[in-house]
Structure formats: structure tokens, C-alpha cells
Amino acid sequence: MTYRTTRQWTLALAGGIAMIGALSATSPALLASPHPGATPAFPTHHFWDDLNLEAMPGDAWERLRENLAWQERRHDARVQHWIEHYRANPGNVVEIIERARPWMAWITEQVERRGLPGEVSLIPFIESSYDPHARSHRGAAGLWQFMPGTADALGLRRQGGYDGRLDVIAATNAALDYIELQAEQWYEGDIELSLAAYNAGAGTVNRARHAALARGEAGEYWQLQLPNETMQYLPKLNAIAAIIDDPDAYGVALPEIDDAPAFAKVPVNRPIELSQLARVTGVDASELSALNPGLTNGSANPSTVEVVLVPVEQEQVVLAELSAPAPQAPAGDSQYLVQRGDSLSAIAARHSISVAELRQHNGLRGDTIQVGQTLEIPRRSLAAR
């Protein structure tokens, strides 16, 4: 097993944090008893279906299958129960997997690079139904369902219109770091026990393990007495892995996904409004928004994030736009970068101009401004000083 160590000084802070706020269910439709002929719980069309991506060699599912490591678990009665549960409503399974389209190849690649079992790539199926915006009633958020305290300990920042829990790149790296660190710290590299701790917390798993050993039983996940949610966690994961490994056997038609990320990373070297970037480059605004769920106010600032994600086939046009010199303010004008706590009236007062003038000069229809937004300050305010 390959372990990453570059962030362990941060991850050590998280060793004792219980991730009890993680969502254990995929969706209400999958938790409930399936009804034949039921309408799928998710939209049947996604803008990813319309992307004219250049064909890439390889298939994401084949790559994932090559890395599956727990096939023998499929004979467990708990796994068989969930296989039957999922196969009874294959439309819901496919709809959830459709949400993974932009992320599946990249997540699989990260899991493979670390030498982790391929099943780990499917944890977001169990945690969030592959919805980066998913939030639980307990406060967990994102594809990997991080609680605020755990996210803080792992360095997933929440500030300035940015939530690292919703940032798929940052949250995936943090989740895999955390899983590896717990396995190394508590379980002699046992990833199954680490995943149980990911769901229930290390304290809960360690107590169950010690109790099992005291009874003379094995301390492996499948022999432990854990909360029901955690007892079902790995069976769900292994069940969906079994279906993906042989979809024809279970009557599931997996969507085709290329074995290459659907997005590219573009450096952020100046404040960027996603809506404006979409206008000047022709990139669909909904695609930019979907690829950057961590940018909660629709803007990126170099003080907050290093990159924005864009559809891979439009990387060059976006790079060209962001590499061009920033527009210069008219002679005599100045620029102001909106900070946390700013209001339009406060900025106007600071520069000795009226709110109406500031609003008109920047084409604002109301008084709403966002952190990281650049405002032009009219030259009159400079002369008045």
C-alpha cells in the first residue's frame, strides 16, 4: 500500500475525530423498498451528455474493475441483500452513476495511484449519490460528506465564498489521506476497518474491535458488532462494486465514461467571476458552476483557490482568456476588491461617492456584491480627496 506523507502534519490533527456526520444512505429512493415502475429519483438528462469530448482510449469502468480487490466479500449475506436491493431498481443506480460522469475517471486515478482498493472510488455513491452539493441534516457536506470539524482538521477551508468540502478535488484528496492515515494509525493498514471508522468514528470501531478480541473473536470488520448504519456500510459498497464489475448479470446498463478526466485545471492568477468567464469564452455557465461547486459565490480569487476547473476540450480558450492582461480601468479610475464584511454603502462612503453613482458605474442593479468581486471607483472620488 502506498501512503502519502506530505500533509501528515495536518492530518495528524484528525486522528481522533469521528466522522459520525457522514451520510450513510445514497438516496431516499434507494433506502425505501423499491417500487416496480417507479419514476427515477433524478433527472434523466445531464449536460455532460451533450459534451463533445474527444474520444479517449480506455474505459473508466474497465480501469475500475482492474483495481477491485474485495470480490470474495460478495458471498456475504449482507452484501447479497444490498445487491438484490439495488438490482430491483437499476434505473436509480444508473442515475446516481450518471452524476459521477465528470469525476469518475479522476477519482479512480487517484485511488489507483495510492494503491488503494478500487472499491474506495465508489464511496461517494454511498455517501452522497455523487452530488457535490449534498448536505446531511447533521451538517456533513460534499461528495465525501465531511463534518465541519473534520474538514477544519483536514485543512478544508470554508471562507471567502469557498467551501473546501464541496470542492471535489480538495475533498477527494482529504478523504483519501484520512482513510490512509487511519488505516496506518489504528488498523495496521486494514482499509476495511478504516472505512468503518470513516462512517462511525475511530472510537466506535476501536471499542467494538477490543470487545471482539476480548471474546476471542477476530478483530476484522465483518466480525464486529457495530451500529447498524456502519454494519451496512461496506456491504453497500461491495454490492455496488459487484454490480459495476458485471452489470449485465444484474440488468444494469452503465453509461459509457472515458478513462480520462472530463475537466482540466486552470490556474487562478486574478479574481475571476465564473459568469463573466463563461460569457467571454463561450463555455456553458452551468458547466463551470457544476465543475466548481466549492466556489459558493460564483467567483474565484487567488487568495482562496489555486485553480478553477473547466471542460477539458475548452481548456485552451480559457487559458488564453486568463493569460491576457487584465482590463485597465479608465484614466483616473481605481479598482477595489470586495472583502468579507464589505457593503456597497460602506465602500461608497470610503471613497466619498454615492451608492447610486457606484452602482451605476459598475452596472449593478441592486446592492448585492460578492467577496472577490472587483469594483471600479469613479475618478470623481479621487478628485474629491
UniProtKB/TrEMBL annotation:
<dbReference type="Pfam" id="PF01476">
    <property type="entry name" value="LysM"/>
</dbReference>
<feature type="domain" description="LysM">
    <location>
        <begin position="334"/>
        <end position="377"/>
    </location>
</feature>
<dbReference type="InterPro" id="IPR036779">
    <property type="entry name" value="LysM_dom_sf"/>
</dbReference>
<protein>
    <submittedName>
        <fullName>Transglycosylase SLT domain-containing protein</fullName>
    </submittedName>
</protein>
<dbReference type="InterPro" id="IPR023346">
    <property type="entry name" value="Lysozyme-like_dom_sf"/>
</dbReference>
<keyword id="KW-0732">Signal</keyword>
<comment type="similarity">
    <text>Belongs to the transglycosylase Slt family.</text>
</comment>
<feature type="signal peptide">
    <location>
        <begin position="1"/>
        <end position="31"/>
    </location>
</feature>
<dbReference type="InterPro" id="IPR018392">
    <property type="entry name" value="LysM"/>
</dbReference>
<dbReference type="Pfam" id="PF01464">
    <property type="entry name" value="SLT"/>
</dbReference>
<dbReference type="GO" id="GO:0008932">
    <property type="term" value="F:lytic endotransglycosylase activity"/>
</dbReference>
<dbReference type="GO" id="GO:0016020">
    <property type="term" value="C:membrane"/>
</dbReference>
<dbReference type="GO" id="GO:0000270">
    <property type="term" value="P:peptidoglycan metabolic process"/>
</dbReference>
<dbReference type="InterPro" id="IPR000189">
    <property type="entry name" value="Transglyc_AS"/>
</dbReference>
<dbReference type="InterPro" id="IPR008258">
    <property type="entry name" value="Transglycosylase_SLT_dom_1"/>
</dbReference>
